[in-house]
Design brief:
It is a single chain. This protein is of the alpha/beta class. The chain has two domains: 4-245 and 402-508, 3-Layer(aba) Sandwich (Rossmann fold); 251-378, no CATH class. Helix content is 40%, strand content 18%. The strands form three sheets. Strands 1, 2, 3, 4, 7, 8, 9, 10, 13 and 14 form a ten-stranded mixed beta sheet that branches. A two-stranded antiparallel ribbon has the order 5-6. Strand 2 (61-76) and strand 3 (81-92) form a beta hairpin. The N and C termini lie far apart (48 Å).
Length: 509
């Protein structure tokens, strides 16, 4: 088992994409009561904008649209300017557009801008990558996105405070926006403002969040209903994680050791490290891994030191078979293999590490003896292309000029979780509450098999532990893709993603 310093390091790495946690609405109100007046009543007024007209070709059909890029100035109840939120709004040009579906989209972190969904899947342009998602090398390019959502919905990309061009006002402490409650308040206030400013109250309303953005989306569904009486038609949870307790490795919490195992199997299958009988079919291998994790590994870990030597060896042998790791390594880890060690160990003999966001990618470290990898090769693969192209796109096509840098990842730490001292937040409860009070609400849950930031089996576990009433359970739809965290960078997955999204909109708009 990793020592305390390693656990803390791993935890901070994980925070950069998926700090998770949620609480019930009465707790949220209690937390709000302790906030200053600048955090409680936020209103928005229009600010600087750039308006352009363009078109996108989707499934052979030309879609004309108007793009508005600019700021909403957030003011408190005394009229003081406290922040500027940057957004990009795409509206299809047609009669009756005010009644078209509208989707509010954001990424995760916390601290991430909306660049990934914006230029990776939803918007009218996408970054050029190889079909498997590998960067093609600088100088980078963007192209028409034939898989954009604009044929089904208008889209508003939101950059929360301290991400993208969004920022607190001069002299305002940014920390008042850097927390679970604080983030919900500012984003919800923006959505309410936007609906009024653009006369979109009669539209079907959707949220699309990725990674920590799914945490935000689940909280917003409940918060928007309770605070602004805004009821949604649907939510897209892209690479979802809803319960911090199922995702974070630390001594004494065995859930991640159980729920990560199918992702270990998926990665080992991709890198051809499984035994021949498991290597023939990914779905069969994953089914075997899921059954082992729930029916054998879970009760074994529950026993702790009461596990006999014979049982210990039996579990280690089966774990080795399903992960591509040696039996000895499984035993050395007390059957509790952390994700960070797995990245290094799976292909250590080959002198390679595997990616965290996408296990298909490999990297090379300073040496082969380390505890974990030096970097995430799947992240550096997309970092350069998306950073260059969002700056190029905003300036060249949207004509939005800004001297300050566009923060792909803003400095939002420490993220405030004071509302959940001594326990894990669980966004699934907020989602259950929203779906119960709004039986028309439908939820898409998408996951990549090779994603270690938000493993697919964890998302399934979190949802199946919401304890929805039977009549609501089919309101949540799962979709799986043979790719990683940003599964849309893999073109076959992007094509399937678009089909799944179209079907969701057609049924729920």
């Amino acid at each position: 088992m990793a020592d305390t310093s390693l656990q803390n390091t791993n935890r901070m790495k994980r925070i950069s994409f998926i700090l998770l946690a949620f609480f019930t609405i009465h707790e949220l109100h209690a937390q709000k009561a302790n906030l200053t007046s600048e955090k409680t009543e936020l209103t928005a007024v229009p600010g600087q904008t750039s308006i352009t007209k363009n078109s996108v070709l989707i499934s052979g059909h030309k879609i004309d649209y108007t793009a508005t890029a600019g700021y909403a100035e957030m003011k408190n109840d005394t009229g003081k300017l406290i922040a500027k939120i940057f957004f990009t709004y795409y509206k299809k040009d047609e009669e009756g557009a005010a009644r078209r579906p509208i989707t509010f989209a954001f990424n995760g972190g916390p601290g991430s801008s909306s660049v990934w969904l914006h230029l990776g899947a939803l918007g009218p342009r996408r970054v050029v990558l190889s079909d498997d998602g590998t960067a093609v090398g600088p100088p980078y390019q963007y192209i028409n996105n034939e898989f954009s959502w604009l044929d089904k919905t208008d889209i508003v990309f939101i950059d929360p405070v301290s991400t993208g061009f969004s920022s607190p006002a001069s002299g305002v402490n940014a920390n008042q926006f850097h927390g679970y409650v604080e983030d919900l308040q500012s984003v919800a206030s923006f959505i309410r403002y936007f609906l009024s400013k653009n006369e979109r109250w009669s539209s079907s309303k959707f949220l699309a969040g990725e990674s920590y953005g799914t945490t935000r989306a689940a909280g917003l569904a409940d918060y928007l209903q309770s605070e602004y009486r805004i009821f949604l038609n649907g939510i897209f949870l892209i690479s979802a994680v809803l319960n911090f307790g199922t995702n974070d490795y630390y001594v004494g919490n065995d859930l991640p050791a159980i729920l990560y195992l199918p992702s270990f199997t998926a990665a080992a299958w991709y890198h051809r490290k499984l035994s021949p009988e498991l290597q023939t079919d990914l779905n069969s291998a994953l089914k075997a891994s899921e059954q082992f994790a729930m029916n054998e590994l879970a009760p074994a870990l529950l026993k702790g030191e009461l596990l006999t030597d014979e049982e210990n060896n039996t579990i280690a042998e089966k774990m080795s078979r399903l992960t591509g790791l040696s039996k000895e390594f499984c035993l050395q880890n007390n059957l509790r293999i952390t994700d960070n060690r797995f990245y290094k160990e799976l292909r250590r003999k080959d002198g390679l590490t595997i990616g965290r966001l996408d296990a298909r990618f490999t990297g090379k470290d300073f040496d082969n003896a380390g505890e974990g990898p030096d970097y995430d090769p799947s992240f550096v693969n997309i970092d350069g292309p998306f950073t260059a192209m969002i700056n190029e796109y905003l300036q060249k096509e949207l004509h939005f000029k800004e001297d300050k840098p566009y923060n792909i990842f803003g400095n939002v730490h420490p993220w405030n979780f004071n509302n959940v001292q001594n326990r894990f937040l669980n966004v699934a409860e907020n989602l259950r509450s929203a779906m119960t009070k709004n039986p028309s609400l439908k939820v898409y849950v998408g996951a990549g098999y090779y994603d270690f930031a938000t493993p697919y089996f964890i998302a399934h576990y979190d949802v199946t532990h919401m304890f929805l009433r039977p009549e609501l359970r089919d309101h949540i739809q799962f979709h799986y893709y043979q790719a990683g965290h940003m599964y849309y960078i893999n073109k076959p997955s992007l094509i399937q993603f678009k089909k799944d999204v179209d079907e969701f909109f057609d049924k729920n708009k």
